[in-house]
Design a protein that fits this description.
Layout: H1 10-28, E1 38-39, E2 47-57, E3 62-72, E4 75-81, E5 91-95, E6 99-103, E7 105-107, H2 127-136, E8 139-144, H3 151-161, E9 168-171, E10 175-178, H4 184-190, H5 193-203, E11 204-207, H6 210-222, E12 228-232, H7 244-256, E13 261-265, H8 268-277, E14 281-283, H9 293-300, E15 306-307, H10 310-317, H11 327-332, H12 335-339, H13 351-376, E16 381-382, H14 395-406, H15 411-417, H16 420-427, E17 445-449, E18 462-467, E19 470-471, E20 473-474
Length: 481
């Protein structure tokens, strides 16, 4: 498993023209590509044996001490009390004393093609770096709900083929939205003019009619999209919003093709419209207004998972205030980029978006209560970071898990939200092939110091990340944590 660029087809060369121009400017500024955050070993071990680990049972939320876990190929082949598991021939042995073995984490709302710098920094997105950052932080699976096509699908397929190193990707490709709806105002306002046309064409499908819906769904089905994403929200306030009829049409036509639909929502009205349309999950909780018990019950009654994504809204709500970096951010992000958030230049944020940020600031403390209320009504909450400006791929999921704990989840429940429950949704199965440490399951594993159930911070104290049976070599920024 190693990184290699896709073949330079004429279509890809055409897409790379603006990127090449930016790359030329970058080179003249004396910049260079940073060293990788993760690499694969020179020789893949025939097998791996984790010895004397505390294995975290994410289904029951308890750790079982003194376990050996054998991995052969890409699969967990055996496990049992220490000393009872036969050592596979040629196995690499990993001493796991004092550590907890968990399934790799799942980010249920990650954007591989996004940049995480503030808009005024002029950073160009680096998807390969994002993939490495996810893996460095123990994120071995990502649901990417909205990215450029065909790049998102090519990237997913390259990872599955083993020619690109990264977490397993479930890709939706372009976002379906109203004409002029989110994310079009964001692109129009923030994307440089010379790249704006390309992003709009490849990242968004505006819908004005049933014919538009059919065309969009047909295209996504032909591209073998894993899921469909539609936006039912106004960003900024007053932007066009996908209506009830077209939203229901998206779901109906997607389901006819065997595709599930997730919906970006902001208000209770958005969530009710999406739920009534039959969506399969909510991307974001109701974040624009507080939920009372009655509203929480209405959302939970649809019986669909809710990816809360509090961290991204918190990041925008607190923009301009001092930002404390986490250890994983310091290990994966250049110090100058982290420092670029310390001060917002005058006029850097357009007035309409400043109003949006003020709304987030006014509602941020209510989000914790809303999550508590929805969980009390039986809702399944999944963990997703929504990586973008201020939210870094990998570290962002760890921040989100901490917010879920602030919202009343136990650390064990937060871990389950980013493993077993997420895997069940992605595979649409009560017994998915990953997301749990068990014989026969995919060997996407995470070995961390200490017990995450006792202290969630231990989840970031990573010893080993394993992707499909391969223990990865991790290289922090600057050569040290």
């Amino acid at each position: 498993m190693h990184a290699s660029p896709p073949r330079p087809t004429p279509a890809r060369l055409a897409r790379l023209v603006p990127i090449a121009l930016l790359g030329l400017a970058t080179l003249t500024a004396g910049c260079s590509k940073p060293p990788p955050l993760v690499t694969t070993p020179a020789a893949r071990p025939a097998a791996v044996l984790f010895e004397n680990a505390s294995v975290f049972d994410v289904v029951r939320g308890v750790a079982v001490a003194g376990q050996d876990v054998a991995v052969t190929g890409e699969i967990i082949s055996a496990m049992g009390p220490t000393g009872t598991v036969a050592v596979p021939d040629g196995a690499q042995r990993i001493d796991a004393r004092g550590a907890t073995l968990l399934p790799g984490l799942i980010d249920s709302h990650g954007h591989v093609g996004n940049g995480s710098a503030p808009p005024w920094a002029g950073e160009f997105p680096d998807p390969d770096r994002n993939l490495q950052s996810y893996l460095y932080c123990g994120v071995t699976t990502v649901l990417d709900p909205a990215d450029l096509e065909p790049d998102a699908f090519e990237r997913r397929d390259a990872i599955n083929a083993g020619t690109l190193l990264g977490p397993t990707i479930y890709a939706s490709g372009p976002m379906l939205t109203a004409v002029g709806g989110h994310p079009l105002p964001v692109i129009e306002e923030l994307a440089p003019w010379w790249i704006r046309w390309y992003v709009v064409r490849h990242a968004v499908r505006p819908l004005a009619s049933e014919a538009d819906v059919q065309s969009a769904i047909d295209g996504l089905a032909a591209a073998r999209a894993d899921i469909v994403k539609m936006a039912i929200d106004s960003i900024p306030e007053g932007a066009p919003r996908l209506g009830e009829t077209l939203a229901a049409s998206v779901v109906s036509k997607a389901h006819e093709k065997g595709l599930r639909v997730v919906a970006h929502v902001g208000t209770l009205a958005d969530a009710l419209e999406a739920g009534n349309a039959g969506v399969d999950a909510f991307m974001h909780m109701v974040y624009k207004e507080p939920l009372d018990a009655q509203g929480a019950a209405k959302v939970a009654a649809f019986g669909k998972p809710i990816v809360a994504t509090m961290g991204v809204f918190e990041s925008y709500a607190l923009s301009g205030e001092p930002r404390v970096s986490t250890p994983l951010e310091r290990e994966t992000v250049d110090a100058a980029l982290l420092a670029s958030f310390d001060k917002t230049p005058e006029g850097a944020i357009p007035p309409a978006f400043r109003e949006f940020f003020d709304l987030l600031k006014a509602t941020r403390l209510a989000w914790r209560t809303s999550v508590r209320l929805m969980r009390a009504e039986g809702a399944t909450i999944l963990a997703g970071s929504d990586s973008q400006s201020g939210v870094f791929p990998g570290p962002g999921l760890h921040r989100e898990l901490a917010l879920l704990v602030e919202s009343g989840m136990t650390p064990a429940e937060a871990v389950r939200a980013s493993t077993w429950d997420a895997a069940r949704f992605l595979e649409k199965s009560a017994d998915p092939g990953f997301g749990v440490v068990a014989v026969g399951k995919r060997a996407d594993l995470l070995l961390v110091d200490g017990d995450p159930a006792a202290d969630l911070a231990n989840l970031a104290r990573i010893r080993v990340v394993m992707k499909r049976g391969v223990p990865l070599e991790r290289h922090p920024v600057g050569g040290g944590a």
